[in-house]
């Protein structure tokens, strides 16, 4: 294996096969019943795809770091492995963690230039409530983005093309593909060194990952996934602009 070091598969790095779970070949996207074959002598062999005659999922013997690097490079095979062939249920935790980072970054940008020497509790409580407000705003914007993407795809795929679509699987893919927001952590640590360009590049990377996740789930052309991401971004921007005056009003109320 290119990243796993050898032909055998170690059980510690292996994804458990579940009969009810639909696997996919990471090369041709055909469905597969299993990722590996377990022989009586304890040897595990990767299943070969009947359609393309390639290993169904070579990543089951790869180191997680290699998989992460390929995912960062937005490789289709890595996305198929993560979204179809693993039971990675950290999307909600990842979502909350990303929102916390984004909320703290916004809060620090709001108060980074303030120099207050008053240690009164009311000052700390005010800033704490402002952080909660930033978290709520970030969550609302993410909801608007996901809602815009899902509504657009439902109209195009289900209504216009007459095909079926798994909304839960798409939502999971969207949340997992927002992993790029953890790059906000350096901006939080070195809060005086971030720039609009840096934050813009992080946003572009996240949107690119979102587009690739949609493309993998629907097995569609890049144009459809890009259009869906653009609609989601437009929805997010509209909600952000609509909430900006409201958030300012709430902040003004909390500071008095």
TrEMBL record:
<dbReference type="GO" id="GO:0032366">
    <property type="term" value="P:intracellular sterol transport"/>
</dbReference>
<feature type="transmembrane region" description="Helical">
    <location>
        <begin position="169"/>
        <end position="188"/>
    </location>
</feature>
<feature type="transmembrane region" description="Helical">
    <location>
        <begin position="129"/>
        <end position="157"/>
    </location>
</feature>
<dbReference type="GO" id="GO:0016125">
    <property type="term" value="P:sterol metabolic process"/>
</dbReference>
<keyword id="KW-1133">Transmembrane helix</keyword>
<keyword id="KW-0256">Endoplasmic reticulum</keyword>
<comment type="similarity">
    <text>Belongs to the ARV1 family.</text>
</comment>
<dbReference type="GO" id="GO:0005794">
    <property type="term" value="C:Golgi apparatus"/>
</dbReference>
<dbReference type="GO" id="GO:0005789">
    <property type="term" value="C:endoplasmic reticulum membrane"/>
</dbReference>
<keyword id="KW-0445">Lipid transport</keyword>
<keyword id="KW-0443">Lipid metabolism</keyword>
<dbReference type="GO" id="GO:0097036">
    <property type="term" value="P:regulation of plasma membrane sterol distribution"/>
</dbReference>
<keyword id="KW-0812">Transmembrane</keyword>
<dbReference type="Pfam" id="PF04161">
    <property type="entry name" value="Arv1"/>
</dbReference>
<dbReference type="InterPro" id="IPR007290">
    <property type="entry name" value="Arv1"/>
</dbReference>
<keyword id="KW-0472">Membrane</keyword>
<dbReference type="GO" id="GO:0032541">
    <property type="term" value="C:cortical endoplasmic reticulum"/>
</dbReference>
<protein>
    <recommendedName>
        <fullName>Protein ARV</fullName>
    </recommendedName>
</protein>
<dbReference type="GO" id="GO:0006665">
    <property type="term" value="P:sphingolipid metabolic process"/>
</dbReference>
<comment type="function">
    <text>Mediator of sterol homeostasis involved in sterol uptake, trafficking and distribution into membranes.</text>
</comment>
<keyword id="KW-0813">Transport</keyword>
């Amino acid at each position: 294996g290119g990243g796993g070091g050898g032909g055998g598969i170690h059980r510690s790095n292996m994804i458990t096969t579940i009969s009810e779970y639909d696997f996919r070949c990471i090369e041709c996207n055909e469905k597969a019943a299993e990722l590996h074959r377990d022989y009586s002598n304890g040897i595990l062999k990767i299943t070969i795809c009947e359609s393309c005659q390639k290993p169904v999922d070579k990543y089951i013997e790869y180191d997680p770091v290699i998989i992460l690097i390929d995912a960062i490079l937005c490789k289709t095979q890595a996305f198929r492995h993560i979204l179809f062939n693993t039971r990675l249920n950290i999307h909600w935790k990842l979502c909350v963690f990303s929102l916390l980072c984004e909320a703290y970054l916004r809060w620090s940008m709001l108060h980074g230039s303030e120099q207050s020497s008053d240690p009164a509790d009311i000052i700390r409580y005010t800033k704490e409530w402002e952080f909660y407000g930033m978290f709520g705003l970030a969550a609302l914007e993410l909801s608007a983005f996901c809602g815009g993407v899902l509504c657009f795809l439902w109209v195009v795929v289900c209504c216009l093309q007459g095909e079926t679509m798994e909304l839960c699987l798409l939502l999971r893919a969207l949340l997992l593909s927002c992993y790029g927001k953890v790059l906000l952590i350096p901006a939080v640590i070195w809060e005086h060194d971030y720039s609009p360009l840096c934050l813009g590049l992080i946003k572009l990377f996240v949107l690119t990952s979102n587009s690739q996740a949609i493309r993998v789930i629907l097995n569609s052309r890049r144009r459809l996934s890009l259009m869906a991401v653009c609609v989601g971004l437009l929805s997010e921007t509209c909600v952000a602009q609509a909430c900006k005056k409201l958030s300012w009003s709430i902040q003004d109320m909390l500071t008095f």
